[in-house]
Design brief:
Length: 193
């Protein structure tokens, strides 16, 4: 199960961004080539394990977009993108986020108080992006039903749970050891479910 995902992760090059070990993968970076079978495998497993039920899927630019697109097609749930640029639309909410390798503003549009949402992203590592978005959604009185990432790396899921109460559900856990990506299964019903 998830053979394509695991293989792509194990074959990922690792680069340094400051002190941060960053793996380059189609799921998290869109490079090298992102095969449709990989995206389909990921979306099918998300649907099988987590059965998203919501009015909207919220994804985070940029690498949450392709996961939200395929998940939307599989479930019929529309999606909205938390963007990295301001549009100035009525009701737009600005969010400041910090990760292990970047910092900046995110902008939430198309989400209203009372909306039932599933938040999807490619990876949780430091938790900085998810923390910022989840705190903003809470302040907006949005009903967050689930928080799902394809990959869990580092301590981010624990940080998100401790600071927000939300459990980040992921398909696999990875770590970078000696410049290589190590992949660990998170079984259905496991610690993130």
């Amino acid at each position: 199960m998830l053979d394509k995902l695991k293989e792509s992760l194990r074959n990922s090059p690792v680069i340094k961004k400051g002190e941060y070990d960053y793996f380059v993968n189609p799921v998290t970076d869109g490079i090298p080539l992102t095969e449709p079978e990989l995206l389909e495998e990921v979306a099918e497993e998300i649907v099988r394990r987590f059965r998203p039920e919501a009015d909207k899927i919220i994804c985070i630019e940029a690498m949450g977009i392709h996961h939200a697109t395929v998940l939307s097609l599989k479930t019929g749930i529309p999606f909205v993108v938390v963007r990295k640029r301001r549009y100035g639309l009525p009701g737009e909410v600005a969010v400041h986020q910090m990760t292990g390798y970047s910092e900046g503003e995110l902008y939430i549009n198309g989400v209203d108080s009372g909306d039932r949402v599933v938040v999807i992203d490619d990876v949780v590592s430091t938790g900085g992006t998810l923390l910022a978005v989840l705190e903003a959604l809470r302040e907006m009185d949005v009903d967050v039903r689930d928080v799902i990432t394809v990959i869990d790396k580092g301590e981010g899921s624990r940080v998100v749970r401790e600071r927000t109460g939300f459990t980040v559900k992921s398909l696999v856990k990875v770590d970078v050891i000696d410049g290589r990506v190590k992949v660990e299964d998170i079984p259905a019903g496991g610690p993130h479910d």
